[in-house]
Amino acid sequence: MAKKQLTPYGIKVKKRLAERNMTLGELAAAVGANENYLTQVIHGYKSGRKYIEPICAILDIKMKRKEAKV
Q: pLDDT value at position 2?
């Protein structure tokens, strides 16, 4: 099975994590989610609707409404 590419949202999340020298595991702990689940969210396998706003707040990501559809 081919690896699915990051969603536009996932690209922003990964970029901000790198800029803040933060791991996905640290982000997962901060929002109260499992790291594997967040991996699925940023790759588009799961919607992660519950976590989009908290993630954007923590990473200071501004998103347009249509970009939030992951």
A: 58
40/62 Cα distance (integer angstroms): 21
Tell me the domains of the chain and their CATH numbers. 8-62 (1.10.260.40)
pLDDT in tens, 7-42: 999 999 999 999 999 999 999 999 999 999 999 999
* Residue 1 pLDDT level (bands cut at 50, 70, 90): very low
